[in-house]
Amino acid sequence: MYVMHEICSSVKNMKQLDFSVLVRRANQIKEELKQGVKKPYRELIDVSWGDPHRTGVKPLSFVRQVLAGCLYPQLLESNRLKVDVRQRAQRLLETCAGGSVGSYSDTAGLTQTLKKVSEFITRRDGGVPSHPDSIYISPGSQWSLTNILNILVNPEASPKTGVLVPAPSHCVTTQSILGLGAEVLPYYLTEEQGWALQVEELQRAFDSAKGVCKPFALYIINPGNPAGGVQSRKSMQEVIKFVSEKKLFLLADEVYQECVYGENVEFLSYKRVLAEMGPPLSETVELASFHSASKGLIGECGLRTGYVELVNLDPSVLKLLDNLFSTNSCAPVLGQLTLDLMINPPQPGDPSYPLFYEETQRIRTTLIQNVRQVFEVVNSLPGFSCQPVEGGVFAFPRVYIPPKAIQKAKEVGMEPDTFYCVRLLEETGVLARPGSEFGQKDGTHHIRFCIMTPQHIMEELLRRLSIFHTKFMKEFS
Amino acid sequence: LAGATGGVAVRPVCGIQRDNGTKMSQDQQAVNGVSCVSKVLTLDTMNPNVRRVEYAVRGPIVQRAVQIERELREGVKKPFTEVIKANIGDAHAMGQKPITFFRQVLALCSYPDLLEDNKFPEDAKKRARRILDACGGHSIGAYSASQGIECIRQDVARYIERRDGGIPSSPDNIYLSTGASDAIVTILKLLVCGEGRDRTGVMISIPQYPLYSAALADLAAVQISYYLDEENCWSLNVEELRRALKEAKQYCKPRVLCIINPGNPTGQVQSRQCIEDVIRFAKEEHLFLMADEVYQDNVYADGCKFHSFKKVLFEMGPEFSSTVEMASFHSTSKCYMGECGFRGGYMEVINMDPQVKAQLTKLVSVRLCPPVPGQALLELVVNPPQPDEPSYSTFMKERTAVLAALGEKARLTEETFNSVPGITCNPVQGAMYTFPCISLPQKAIDKAKEEGLIPDMFYCMKLLEEEGICLVPGSGFGQKEGTFHFRMTILPPTEKLKVVLQKIRDFHLRFTQEFS
Predict the structure, then answer these.
(1) How many helices (H) and strands (E) does chain B have?
(2) Is residue B254 helix, strand or coil?
């Protein structure tokens, strides 16, 4: 029988996340609630994923109507769906082989969708040109990120390949890096400054590789996850100069680009900032930027669609990337069509526009409200603080866990913030994720929860959290 | 490219040329060439394993086919008006219609307001409600658990039990995936380890579906090729397995045996005896069995029957059923559904060490979850309309029609190719392809070598240029040295298929004549 010592060692190196313990318990609690077991709450509030539908945000009607029409074209023969829905579904089906969403597309994606994506990027970036040949649609942005890391990481290299990664950071990427046999080099964002990135810290992280691994790539998330900062142009320029100087491949995870809240905050893409810095940087810095249909107002995580745009890559490498991607055939076609709908929503004058506007405005307003409420409530509680959430879909407040609680956590073999999350789940039915999973400065503790929820859910969440937090702090004072 | 922001002349990006009407200009290419000199990521600095990855099904011949399609659109005159893409197992692209019931349920899942609509049958609504209840926030747009939605895994387990005459299947052993390919690559990733002579060796048939060779190259696993017997309908001979294994033991540690049944590209359906022999061999040699069974409903030939590896394993008794480790794979892309674009699939793992299984579970969590519409579709495939349900008769009619048409096309293809001097074709017992042997005149082989092409690639390219038919050369799948083949799908509608077969026959005769 296959035993542990025969398993791929990099797979073994991937961390076993504490979160799986929380999920198991949450599922148990769900069952218990179903069976009528008495608890201080009637429903779980699961804010552990950046998954708006899971928290109760409704899908956009236009999107789902068009997809229904594409799935079952008989719907297009009656007036059941509005005329612009029918027209769009018709047009989208014509871009699919055999007029069906059940056929494969080309490896990089449906030709028309790629064209639309490149047009979207050009619009977004104030005219900086984008070419469909540089874009690959994939089953979620993580898929193409992992495969590009696969190209970057030589598993047999000695010293190992190193990838600079923000702390805190999306843990899935860290896992992918370890699973491929590379090293993670964390660079710590500065919490007190709204999780800003300091170039000196990039340098420190780079230098820490000496004797350990060879840094080859820098991964950055903007807007951040879990830290909700949005980078300024100046900061982005510093990063670009840094990667150029240190000869690093830049991986820019921009899936939260639609979720930006601050008053004077603007999302700028790395591609745009790079292009506007002019040559030689604009012609030499190698960049992969990622976007997704999972986040933003459309929030279609379950459809698994994202894309990567490649800038300044060596054409021979691109050819091999194409080969590699081709082995997985193509991204789910329904998701590819969703991408089209995301970047080409109904326009004023279209029959579906009023409802679309109403739905998206509601989500936007709620988000801004949620962000404000979280900031106010969390910062009003002793032992709890939260940086302003400028972008992204998470709050990552700091919990000042008392020494007694830290001790208790040690006794039960848990990280302190995992212990906090376990208690939070048991006592209030709120499922959040412990900061220890994401990387945080030693001695600090955090929790992460999704803020893209309906208004009443956020209010209830904050109510339960406040009560729990106060109680917890008192218990371990 | 003046006019970009701030008046800065922005250089074009380096891009691979895809021939879909967006070619770059000459001087753009020159500029790109110059600026590529001191790149960070180059052929030398990249992962060397990825350099060896090839996938013929979407390889160079397909790229040329796409180019020709573009030329046709631009009005270039050719001896044909369309390119027939008989290279890829994509039924819908060739005009096969989706199963009505499946699409109804999926439409209901996508836009649940339609549940109020009386145009949809009750059994479709019932299933849609069940699926939506199992989704986060009642939406197919929410992430699911990384192993897949629990009630769907339960239904998959029940399906397997029904299919295998009651042999128990546990939902915990079921992992839903993004097509079967995702699951296959994941298992291989898990199982390949070691260095030098201890590097994991993976046995795979020649010919094989090139996902396997690609994955093995990417993982730097050692590929151990075992030859299927063309003279005997591509059957698998255990003696050949033994030969391949013995030889491989000198330079690697053989640990995995992959088998595709029904076969791709060969279409053979293994006999029950053969499957037992393979299982016995796997037990003797401590091999992890990977049984790729995505074509399990595609069985046409008289006397042939699909036997699932799991069923045979358990019917061989506890000596085998409690020791042989196995993963079997299925998908929503083939069979009678042909829903490739949904990327639905699953694997069932048998007798896996619990610690190893925990590692597998950890590994799949990194890709978050398989596409939920694909999971929903899988639910319908394993839980189709029952005889007492309103959609049953339409469903059975559609299913039967698709499989009957495929069977007819399989027979027609075999007959036609065998009537051509220089082409011999084994019966297409199952799957969706034919893999005939073509004899090429020596002059053609020499010409091919001159042009730096493998002879069957030379043949297929010429066929593409002259007739607009895109096949995949046998070299893309592996074949005995000195033999040549091509793989063609049997998916075009019958009338079109007849035309395609005729054209290939004519081409082959012409080709033979030209190079005599």
Answers:
(1) 17, 14
(2) strand
Amino acid B164: pLDDT? 97
Answer whether A359's CB lies under 8 Å from B90's CB: no
How far, rounded to the nearest angstrom, does the alpha carbon of residue A434 sit from its chain's CA centroid? 17
Phi, psi torsion values for B350, nearest 5 degrees: -120, 135
CA pair distance A62, A67, nearest whole angstrom:
9
pLDDT tens string B39-51? 999 999 999 999 9
The kind and range of the H/E element at B327 are strand B326-331
Six-digit token pair at A386?
Answer: 């939260």
Give the DSSP per-residue string, B360-405: HHHHHHTT----HHHHHHHHHHHSPPPTTSTTHHHHHHHHHHHHHH
Phi, psi of B438, rounded to the nearest 5 degrees: -115, 135
CB within 8 A of B77, min separation 6: which ones?
Answer: none
Place of tokens 């002259």: B466
- Give the Å distances, CA to CA, from A276 to A198, A235, A269: 22, 14, 11
Taking the alpha carbons of B82, B87, B92, B93 in that order, is the dihedral positive or negative? negative
- With CA atoms as reference, the chain A residue closest to B112 would be A64
Q: Do B47 and A152 make contact, defined as CB atoms within 8 angstroms?
A: yes
- Of B346, B331, B383, which is closest to residue B101 (Cα–Cα)? B383
> How many other β-carbons are positioned within 10 Å of the β-carbon of residue B258?
27
Q: Which candidate from A126, A328, A334 shows the least CB-CB separation from B342?
A: A334
Of A3, A8, A47, A86, which to mutate for an interface test with B (greatest number of B Cβ within 10 Å)? Answer: A8
Q: Which residues does chain A have within 8 Å of residue B24's beta carbon, measured at their own beta carbons?
A: 131, 133
Please provide the average confidence, as pLDDT, over all residues in chain B: 92
Q: Which of A393, A76, A413, A93 is nearest to A228 (CA)?
A: A393
Residue of B nearest to A171 (CA): B366
**Sequence-distant (≥ 6) Cβ neighbours of residue B324 within 8 angstroms:** B279, B282, B283, B289, B313, B350, B351
In angstroms, how far is CA A437 from the centroid of its own chain? 15
Q: What residues in B contact A9, CB-CB < 8 Å?
A: 193
Chain B residues within 8 A of A133 when measuring between CB atoms? 15-18, 22, 24
> Residue A220 and residue A246: Cα distance in Å, rounded?
15
Q: Which of A272, A152, A262 is nearest to A218 (CA)?
A: A152
Pairing of strands A306-311, A135-138: antiparallel
Query: pLDDT category, B37, cuts 50, 70, 90?
Result: low
pLDDT of residue B18: 59
DSSP-based helix, strand, coil % in chain B, nearest 5: 45, 15, 40
Name the band, by pLDDT with cuts 50, 70 and 90, for residue B10.
Answer: very low
Q: Is the pTM of this model over 0.90?
A: yes
Residue-wise DSSP of A316-351: HHHHHHHHHHHTT----HHHHHHHHHHHS---TTST
Residue A9 has pLDDT above 50, yes or no: yes
Q: In this structure, how many other beta carbons lie within 10 angstroms of the beta carbon of residue A454?
A: 18
The pLDDT of A34-50, averaged and rounded, is: 94
β pairing state of A183-188 and B486-489? unpaired
CA–CA distance, A139 with B113 (Å, rounded to integer): 27
The beta-carbon neighbor of A2 closest among B95, B342, B356 is: B356
Element (H, E) at B239: helix B238-248
Q: How far apart are CA B95 and CA A106, in angstroms?
A: 17
Task: Find chain A residues with C-beta within 8 A of B135's C-beta.
Answer: 53, 302
Over residues B447-470, the pLDDT tens digits come to 999 999 999 999 999 999 999 999
What residue type is assigned to position A265 of the chain?
V
What region does A429 belong to: left with phi over 0, alpha with psi -120 to 50, or beta?
Answer: left
Q: Where are the alpha helices (DSSP H) in B74-220?
A: 100-110, 122-133, 150-163, 179-191, 211-218
